[in-house]
Amino acid sequence: IPAIHQKLEADGTEKVEGSMTQKLENVLNRASNTADTLFQEVLGRKDKADSTRNALNVLQRFKFLFNLPLNIERNIQKGDYDVVINDYEKAKSLFGKTEVQVFKKYYAEVETRIEALRELLLDKLLETPSTLHDQKRYIRYLSDLHAPGDPAWQCIGAQHQWILQLMHNCKENYVKEQKGNSLLHSPMLDLDSDVRPSPISHLSQTASLKRGSSFQSGRDDAWRYKAPQQVVFIEKLTKLVVSQLPNFWKLWISYVNGSLFSETAEKSGQMERSKKNARQRQNDFKKMIQEVMNSLVKLIRGALLPFSLGEGELRQYGGWEMKSELSGQWLTHVIQTVRLSSESLTALEIPNDMLQIIQDLILDLRVRCVIVTLQHTAEDIKRLAEKEDWVVDNEGLTSLPSQFEQCIIRSLQSLKTVLDCKPGEASVFQQQKTQEDVCQLSIGIMQVFIDCLEQLGTKPDGDIDTAHLSVDVSSPDLFGSIHEDSSLSSEQRLLIALSNCRYLERHTFLNIAEHFEKHGFQGVEKITQVSMESLKELDQRLFEMYIEFKADPIVGSLEPGIYAGYFDWKDCLVPAGVRNYLKEALVNIIAVHAEVFTISRDLVPRVMSRVVEAVSEELSRLMQCVSSFSKNGALQARLEICALRDTVAIYLTPESNSSFKQALEALPQLSSGTDKKLLEELLNKFKSSMHLQLTCFQASSPAMMKT
């Protein structure tokens, strides 16, 4: 029993101990598991923290790249393109060749945004209008961003098309306005508010470019409302070209010399590439400039010289309503405008061969201005007849010759700036055809005035206004024939016209020839010769008309007077004196003298000589028609012939002397001294009795003029 008891106790102890051990192991296992669980969480959190810390370190270290896409967008919106380019260059150097996926992903985002920026900058570069400064800036940005192609050349091409479009739109809008439509107010055409105004300053002081100046500086805006539409258009067109072309030309020069890029080592390659491209594209750019110049010239020709364009060109560059051609005054203004434009473009150092087409246009405009001015001068001279006031000065002239000369002088003076050659310009008269045209027009002007004189001198009495007729107070008016009469006779008008003709031949035409020569006209000798011949022909026609008016009645009265009362040369009484018919003839001759003297004393010898010729010729004819004379008849005839001859002695010409000689030769010679004595007594008696009437034949007189 004790043994069993001991054994039982031992077994029980072992069981208890085994149970407790098992429990302890379980506890320990649970504790271990709990501890493991607790430490795993701690370790996990630590690993996570370490991972987070490492990620934060990576993010912190490479935050430039990770933030770059967003920063690029923000800087683009702000226009900080330099910052974007610098960041891109940095990112490209750091991550451009990375193999890390996350870096590759973010760098791809950067490239996407940079490509969008390239497109944006190219759009801005090609956008018009734009300043030269902005264009250069965008080109440099695109170059720094390694944009494909040649943005600088693309910009030059866009500017070229922009300028051409501006020019054609300008024409279309002014043509529409001329035709009655309102001018469309397009921002593209409103150069006055353009973001890059750089019109050329007035080159009378400087040929340099001055931003913001204007051709129209200081000019009243009302000028535009008075000027023809074509003139305003050309002002606008030339202003447009000289404001746009400088930047275009400077952009090309920058492209040629590589100054679009910084003078730094890393960009020297870009400069060399730019210079190489420019060399290859010189001909293309030259064609662009020539196209702009051609468009400018043809648009001006379409507005002012449409006949100088072909049919196809006229459709493209014309379209104006040509109701009437511009006056010489407006053409002169246009020439000055185009000249200023040419000088402005020359100041840009554009090669002369590119600008030659403008010089050709200026020459054609100058020639046309001369032609039009002379044509309008002829029209003005036609209207001088309406201004004839018939007021005669002490030289027997009206104001008409002076008005004619002044009209010519004003016309030539208005052409002075047109005829004067600016540097590089040819003479207006260099072409033979121009010389011939101007010569014919000049002759035409002179002929118009000659026709004007003829019209005034020969028009019917009822066609002339003589209400204001008068004679200069310094002109002797012995008979008051003009002052007292309220109308002007045909004979008086002829005399005034003859007096004017005389002055024109001796003074006015010669003065005008000097003015033509002074202004460089060619063929002045021909102009003068043809005009003088025409003037002399008119003078002779007018003179013959006056002589016919005055001499024919006197001549016609001789034969009836001689044979009045059945007078017969074969059966007549001893002469008692000069018969009345001759006295009446002399009184009529004296009346002619008075009329001529009242208007122009210089015409007296010419008129009187011709009247005397007519009378003496008729008297000679009548004497030669007599079959026979009695002694008394012969004495009577000799008395009357000698009385007339001696009375008009100072107006005798070879022709009248010959007539008197023939008349006397037709008479029988005086056979006795008694007859000669009687003849002398009767002649003295006649001269004494008519002393007062014959005074006009005794006064001193200028040398006689040949008829």
From TrEMBL:
Keyword check for Transit peptide: no
Entry keyword Nucleotidyltransferase: no
GO cellular component, one term: exocyst
One Pfam family named in its UniProt record: Sec5
Domain Exocyst complex component EXOC2/Sec5 N-terminal: 3-697
A biological process term (GO) from this entry: Golgi to plasma membrane transport
Keywords: Exocytosis, Protein transport, Transport
InterPro entries hit by this protein: EXOC2/Sec5, EXOC2/Sec5_N_dom
Cited function: Component of the exocyst complex involved in the docking of exocytic vesicles with fusion sites on the plasma membrane.
Stated family: Belongs to the SEC5 family.
Subunit structure, interactors included: Component of the exocyst complex.
Name of the protein in question: Exocyst complex component 2
Taxonomic path: Eukaryota, Metazoa, Chordata, Craniata, Vertebrata
